[in-house]
Amino acid sequence: ISGSTIELRLMKRERNSLFAVPVSHPGLVGVPAIEDPQLDRSLSKLVKATPEQVLQNVLDRERSVLEAVYREEKDTPEAVFITEAIRLLEEKVESCALESIALATNPVVNELTEAVAEL
Questions:
Q1: 119: closest CA among 34, 23, 29, 39?
Q2: Is residue 110 over pLDDT 80?
Q3: CA dihedral (28, 30, 34, 37) positive or negative
């Protein structure tokens, strides 16, 4: 938008780290979890989450945004693309739900998941 203010921040990334943080930030020790209340999502593109958390925190938000856009744009030619995005999102929801069921019913996967969560 013309006339808007842009904020630039000097960032740093430790050697062998995946995370860039502002120079004044102490840095990220490990991969942050999505339920962490102190999580600054702008600092990480990788976040630990369970399939249920992905459904609640990501896919439900995407669905509400797409449905709002569709309500505004349903009479335009772009509505076809929005409905396709909604359909693809439903496939992601189904896949995430199936993965959640598989994790809940497989004891070996549960053990691996717990071991990774401890890292």
A1: 29
A2: no
A3: negative
Distance separating alpha carbons of residues 58 and 6, to the nearest angstrom: 27
- C-alpha distances out from residue 43 to 16, 24, 37, 54, 93, Å: 16, 13, 14, 18, 26
96/98 Cα distance (integer angstroms) = 5
Q: For residue 95, what pLDDT is reported?
A: 86
Q: What angle do CA 18, 95, 110 make, to 5 degrees?
A: 70
63, 85 contact by CB (below 8 A):
no
Contact call for residues 54 and 96 (beta carbons, < 8 A): yes
Please give the angle made by the CA atoms of 74, 77 and 79, to the nearest 5 degrees: 40
Query: What would the two tokens of residue 7 be?
Result: 């904020």
> Does the pLDDT at position 67 exceed 90?
yes
Total-model pTM? 0.57
Beta-carbon count within 10 A of 99 CB: 15
List 22's β-bridge partners, or say none.
11
